[in-house]
Structures
1.
Amino acid sequence: MADVFPKILGVSRIPVSPWLEVVARDVQFGSGSPAETYYAVAQPDYVVALAITPDSRVLLVRQYRPAIERFSLELPAGMLDPNEDPRTAVARELLEETGYPTKTIELIGKGATCSCRISNTTHSFFVRTGERVSNFTEEPGVSVSLASLGELRSHLLEGAFAEQTHVGVVALAAARGLIEV
């Protein structure tokens, strides 16, 4: 039986925090070729909510992102806890970040977050919410806002969304006929 390439010859992991590790993979691309080392960031899977409130507005969060040294407007999102179901995680994140409970939830899609550098999966959901809980307090550094679909389109086109993964969630939701932007 012939060897199948590319072939992973070795993997090493360097923990950085409870939420991140650096992974080095030694990959051989052909018989007799030397191994090349490729680095990736490993994180828990990620969930994103394109959430629509009872008055048909989109929930957004604005927060400072040290990695890009600026504020970013984003969809509510977060990482899965160990052994957590993605639907449970997105409902939890939505409530924690915005104070809005989930009424209905539909999978938009799932795929690699960044196939060249991050080894996790993004699970995106279309959510219809209930009314905001009365005793909700915003997390420090996170501000919640609402936008019409037209305002969402403007935010996307003006570059207010720094997270291209979230732009992809909106595009996929539009392609599935869940929203019009």
2.
Amino acid sequence: MKLAVLAYEKEKISEGQLARFLRTDRVNARLLVDELSSNYQEQDNKFVNRGVNFAQEIVGR
């Protein structure tokens, strides 16, 4: 999931591809990107997790 979001943010995959990777629709994919982006910050060319739970289920959100 994290790699898909990073690829989307770097414009390596489209919004439709992101939604397929995340097994959701485009609206929920966008919401998830916003949520994950706000939980990560770049520090010394690395992304540091600020508390997102990647184990949470995203299907049926």
